[in-house]
Amino acid sequence: MQTHKPRITLKDIARNVGVHPSTVSRVLNPDTRKMVTKRIADRVIHASEQLGYRPNTFAQSLRTNRSYTVGVMVPDLTNPAFGPIIKGIDNVLEQSGYSVIVTNTDNVLEKEKRSVDKFHERQVDGLIIATARRLDDVVTTCLEEGTPFVLAVRSTIEKGVNSVVSDEIVGGQMIVSHLAQLGHKKIAYVAGPQFLSTGFERYQGYLQGLKNAGLELDEDLVAIGDAFTEEEGRQAASTINANKKPFTAIVAANDLMALGCYDELITKGLKCPDDVSVVGYDDMPFTRHFNPPLTTVHTPLLDVGMQAARILLERIWKPEQPAHALKLQPHLIVRGSTGIPSSFSETGTKVTN
Q1: DSSP of 104-121, one letter per residue?
Q2: What is the largest CA-CA distance in the chain?
Q3: DSSP assignment letter at 65
Q4: Do 183 and 281 have their domain in common?
Q5: Which residues, other chains included, contact 6 with Cβ-Cβ below 8 Å and sequence gap of 6+?
Q6: What is the pTM of this model?
Q7: What is the DSSP letter of 6?
Q8: Which domain holds residue 190?
Q9: What secondary structure letter does DSSP report for 269?
C-alpha cells in the first residue's frame, strides 16, 4: 500500500533552521522578505527547498483574503507578439507567488466581457488586459467597479488608467526616417485597425514621419486593414497596387501584415528589396527568417509584460497609488528587406531600359 509523505509546514522549516515560524513566513513572502537578514533568509529558502515545501495557497488566500491569481486577456493567442508578453507577466508574478490564468478573446467584445465575469467568479486579484480598444466598455466597467488592472500593449483614451505600451508614434517616425534616408519618396502604408491604439498611433507616426522628411501624403498609397493578420496585409497591399500609383517602399503596421505584403509582391512579380522595400513592426521572433529578413521596429514585448505585472502588483497591494502610464522606447532593426529605391512606372511595375 502506497504511503504519502506528510505535507511540510512552516513549523517544520522553522524547526530545521532554528527560528520562529513567523520568521519563515516573512521570508517566504517576497513582500516581507526584506524584514529578515539576508543570512537568515538564505537559510530559510535553502531549508524550504531541501525539505520540499509547497505553499498552501488555499490557506494563504483565507489568511490574506487574496486568491494569488491574476487574469490575463489577450486578443489572439496565435499572434506571436503575445507570447513574450505572457512570458514577461509570468516571470514577475511567479516570483511573488501568483499564478496566471490566460484567456483568448478573438477581439470579440462579448467574449471580453464574459472573460472579465469569469475572472471575477474566480476571485482573481487583478487583471492584465491586452485587448483594449481606444474606446472600451470593459475598461470603463473595471474603472467603475474598482477592479485592479493594467493595460498592456494597447491603451485607451480613458484618463487615470494604468498602462504599459511602446511609443508607437516614435516607432512610425523611425521607419519613415530610415526609408527617406535611403532615398525613398513614395512610401505606401498598410495600416492596422484604427479603433486600436496600436493601429492608430503607428499610422500617426507614419504621417508625422512623412512631415518630418518633407514628403507629401498620397492617400492612394494608404490602405487600412481590419485586423493585424497576414491576409489583411495582403489585401491592403493589393488595394494599393490596384490604385496604380508608383511607390518604392511599403510600411506595414505589424510583421504579420508585412508578410502579407511579401505575398502580394510575389504575386505581382516584384522583388523585395530590389523593386519594393518592406518594413514591419514588432520584431516578432520569426522575422529574421523571412526571405529577405524583415526590417522592423523592435517592440520590447517581454519588458511590456514584466512592467505590467510589476505595476499590477503595486496596484493590488497599494490601491491608493496614482495610475502609471508607462511608455517604453522601441528601436529600429535594419535587415535585408530595405534598400535604395528603384524606378517604377505609373503602373507600379519596374521600369526597364
Answers
A1: E-TT-HHHHHHHHHHHHH
A2: 88
A3: T
A4: yes
A5: none
A6: 0.80
A7: P
A8: 168-298
A9: T
